[in-house]
Design brief:
Layout (H helix, E strand, L loop, with lengths): L6 E9 L4 H17 L4 E11 L4 E7 L8 H8 L3 H6 L3 E15 L6 E9 L4 H17 L4 E11 L5 H6 L7 E7 L2 H12 L9 E16 L27
Antiparallel strand pairs: 1-3, 1-4, 2-3, 2-8, 4-6, 5-7, 5-8, 6-7
Length: 247
């Protein structure tokens, strides 16, 4: 499938305005490399909000769901670095979904994206899943200007950790559709159609929410330079970590 694993960690959140610059520097230079150094984490992409939602969406592509409950991952969350401890209180409204990738159609991640979040009732879940996988995702990926579409389903409860205690309790994610491509207008039009009464709501999606984003940064595990995230806990509270080297 186009996404690199069978699981994904999907996050949406806002940041206090006067902390945005430091957040972006920290997330780029420490946090993404730190996460991608963990077993099973394959690629991380940060998106900036354009309309209808929070300031950020982050998608981690993960080899399998078990990596999101592994000892390595939870140990990292329970031992945040000094820089992480400084940035985390600026988070607002975090939603965090530990998801299975139910479907992923089309190549790559485009420069623009739509995120559709929705609830799924048990009575119509099978019907909605079938319609999305057999009709909606292939049709989206075949639309001019759209590259790929991905269906995610919240699959396990996030464990309370010290990182979460610092920023406040996270909300969950039931189901989500991520649509990406190079034509922001085509993506927005497709998202509007899916949010309309005869779109996802007619097929069993509840409380559909839509937000539009632009790609901010994407980093894969292979791009990490040697040793970039090997000793994150040893960094001083006031110093920036070294810039990751590609290759």
């Amino acid at each position: 499938m186009p996404l690199l694993g069978s699981a994904a960690l999907l996050l949406t959140f806002d940041i206090v305005a006067d902390a945005v610059e430091e957040h972006d520097r920290w997330h780029t230079r420490e946090h993404l490399p730190e996460r991608l150094a963990l077993p099973g984490f394959l690629r991380g992409t940060r998106w900036s909000g354009v309309a209808g939602g929070p300031r950020y969406m982050v998608l981690y592509e993960v080899r399998e769901l078990g990596a999101l409950a592994s000892e390595d991952y939870l140990a990292r969350l329970d031992d945040p670095t000094p820089w992480t401890r400084r940035v985390m209180p600026s988070y607002r409204g975090m939603s965090r979904g530990l998801c299975s990738v139910l479907g992923s159609v089309g190549p790559g991640l485009g420069s623009a994206a739509a995120l559709l979040r929705f609830g799924v009732g048990a009575a119509r879940e099978a019907e909605l899943r079938h319609r999305l996988l057999e009709d909606v995702l292939p049709r989206l990926a075949d639309t001019s200007g759209i590259a790929s579409a991905h269906l995610l389903r919240g699959a396990q409860q996030a464990t309370m950790t010290n990182e979460q205690r610092i920023r406040g309790a996270d909300g969950g994610i039931d189901a989500a559709l991520v649509v990406t491509g190079h034509d922001a207008g085509a993506i927005a039009a497709s998202a509007r159609a899916l949010c309309a009464d005869d779109g996802l709501p007619l097929q069993g999606g509840r409380d559909v929410e839509c937000a539009l984003f632009d790609t901010n940064l994407s980093l894969s595990r292979e791009e990490l330079g040697a040793g970039v995230a090997a000793t994150p806990g040893a960094r001083g509270a006031g110093s920036d970590p070294p810039t990751p080297r590609c290759g």
